[in-house]
Amino acid sequence: MSNYQVIINGYQEPKKRLTTDETYKLIDEYQATKNEAIKDRLVNDNTKLVLSMARRFYGREDSMDDLFQVGMIGLIKAIENFNTSFGLKFSTYAVPLIIGEMKRYLRDNHQIKISRSIRDLAYKVLKVKDSYITKLNREPTINELANELEVEPSAVIEALLSTNSVSSLQEEVKNDDGNNLKMIDSITDDKTVVSRTNETIDLYDALKSLNQKEHRVIKQRYFEGLSQSEIAKELFISQAQVSRIERKALDNLHNYLK
User: Fold this and answer.
1) Which stretches of the chain drop beneath a pLDDT of 70?
2) Structural domain for 218, as ranges
3) At 241, which CATH number?
4) In angstroms, what CA-CA distances link 170 with 109, 162, 177?
5) In 5-90, where do the E strands start and end?
6) CB count in 10 Å sphere of residue 142
7) Its family (predicted)?
């Protein structure tokens, strides 16, 4: 990592950023040749992405450099494993890996400090959530919370995540066999994280293969949490028809992912 240690305040963004096609070409070339000069160019072109993520988690003046460095590890892993055939933006793939490295560092070394704005939003989200449960006897979807609070869904997710308590990785938890297990021993390795990210992209790609009605039903059923009867009312069709559309869509997804 020493090759990528920079003075954060002195970072200068490249005058000309790589296009998506140029990024794809360089990543394919680097993965085939492991040419360090190509990796350097990709890293430098995406350093601003790491900086923007680091500022989101920044809570201690003496840890900013370290936070940036571990974020660079996530960026390099993204360069190593990104599959250009998905046709996805590189940043979409890289951000979860960068954030994952930063969160791991913060959990290992510091208590994460949540900004006031996120704490305030989290309080509002929980109030709306409780209201939904009381009135409708169900939890609201992310989109419902976002619409109610007039914010982006990603902001709702970030606020909800901020309410999760942070545990020490050395903390012992009960295992199924009655023995104690340290939390760090239950964490998946980096290859598994990358694999799951790839699986998510595979699913995203598979969803695009569905027709408009199938895509809508799957989205409302599994991403928005609507029942078949609720979807039937929206589409002005019977619940049995929704069930058939859902079943066919799931079969198509299964066949595509095979």
Assistant:
1) 1-15, 57-63, 108-115, 162-205, 257-258
2) 199-257
3) 1.10.10.10
4) 12, 21, 19
5) none
6) 16
7) Belongs to the sigma-70 factor family.
